[in-house]
Hints:
This protein is of the alpha+beta class. It is 17% helix and 26% strand.
Amino acid sequence: MTITGSPDASGSTATARHLTHIAEPPGVSPGRGYTNVVTGTGRLVMVSGQVALDEHRELVGAGDPEAQARQVFENLRRCLAAAGAGFQDVVKLTYFVTDIAHLPAVRAARDAVMDPARLPASSAVQVSALFMPELLLEVEAFALVPEGATPEDQDAPPA
Length: 159
């Protein structure tokens, strides 16, 4: 079993902040681009599926999965921040894509804002359509925020 975290004073593996990432539970194939299990304690934050609409409800990136994915993750960032959370607190992402070929663009946008060593649990589903025909993807997030955390506690995105 692979658990990501940092060694504590005794040298054993501990959780990173308030979350534990279990990449390879016994008998389960390791994930590529996600963590099989993330557990933790804190306040639950659930963010509805976000799409590539800006604050004026204008579509960003018509026909461009990369531009849409960047806007989706910016919308997720804003929603998480409104709840006093950040990407470091995300334990689960669900991707809904109209073409599974868009996943590399989604993963690139995700990797620009999340620590690749501590990726959340994830599911990806190809759907026949979203609520607007121009939309190529939608992403929802679940996060666990440590009790007493404030927006100022949020980590900066990975370099």
